[in-house]
Amino acid sequence: MTTLLISDLHLHPGAPEVTDGFVTYLEHTASQADALYILGDFFEAWVGDDILDLPEAEPSGNAALVKRVVEALRTLSHAGTAIYLMHGNRDFLMGKRFADTCGATLLDDPTRLDNGDEPLLLMHGDSLCTRDDAYMAFRAKARDPQWQAQILAMSIPERLALAKQIREQSGDANSNKAEDIMDVTPDEVIKEMTAHGVTTLIHGHTHRPAVHQVTLDDQPAARIVLGDWQPDQGWDIRLVSGQAPELRDFPLDAPPSA
Q1: 3-state secondary structure of 35
Q2: Alpha-carbon Rg of the chain, whole angstroms?
Q3: Domains of the chain, with CATH numbers?
Q4: Using an 8 Å Cβ cutoff, are 199 and 193 in contact?
Q5: What is d(CA 7, CA 86) in angstroms, rounded to the nearest whole number?
Q6: Residue 208 has what pLDDT?
Q7: What is the distance between the alpha carbons of residues 206 and 186, in angstroms, rounded to a whole number?
Q8: What predicted TM-score, i.e. pTM, was given to this entire model?
Q9: Cβ atoms 70, 99 nearer than 8 A
C-alpha cells in the first residue's frame, strides 16, 4: 500500500503555477497511490464552504480556483485514491460540504495512522508552536464555534477582506518574532508523541522541511516536517507499508512516481 502526504500548498488565485503543479501531481503521482493526505493550509485562506455557490466568473478568482481543485480531487477520488483533509491555520473553516464535494474525508488534528506495524502521528503542526503566545491565543479564538458562526454570517467579500487583513497582520507580527518562537516547542513534540504512543510524527506548518531525530524514553524517534509548495517546487512524503517514510522535493512540472 502506498500513501502520500502533502501540506502547505497555500493555493490562491495569485499563484497559478502552484495550482497547475498540484493538478499535475494528482494526475501523475497521486493517481498511482492508495491514499493522499493533505495536512492543512491547503488553501491560503478558506472563508467558508458557501464559496462553492459563487459563479465561476466572480472577480476574486477564488470560485474558479476552487472549482478546478474540486474537479481534480473528485476525479482522483472516483479513480480509487482515498483523500483525507486536515485543517490548517489558514483553512480552519473548511467543512464537510467541501470535503464531500471533493470525495474526501475530514481528519481530526492530530490523527494516528498505521504504517504497517508502526503507528504514525499526523498533525498540521501549528498546535506545537506553544511559545508563540499571540498565535496560540488567536488559534483558540479561531476554533471557537461561536466566533466561526459570527464570521460565516458575514458576506463572502467581507470574509475575503478580513482574511487578507489577518494575513497582513500576521506577516507584520511574524517579522518581529524570534525564529525559535515560530518553530515547534520540543517539549510539546515529546508530549504529543508520548500521548499517542508513536515514534514518528509528521507535520507541516513551519515551512522548514527536514527529518529531525528525537529521543523518546531513551529510544530513537523521528519528527518529519513537510515543506511548503512554491511555484517551481513541491514536497511530499511517500509511505510504503512497512518502510520508513521518504521525504521528497520535486519540480512541479515533473512530479515523481508514487
Answers
A1: strand
A2: 18
A3: 2-251 (3.60.21.10)
A4: yes
A5: 9
A6: 96
A7: 14
A8: 0.95
A9: no
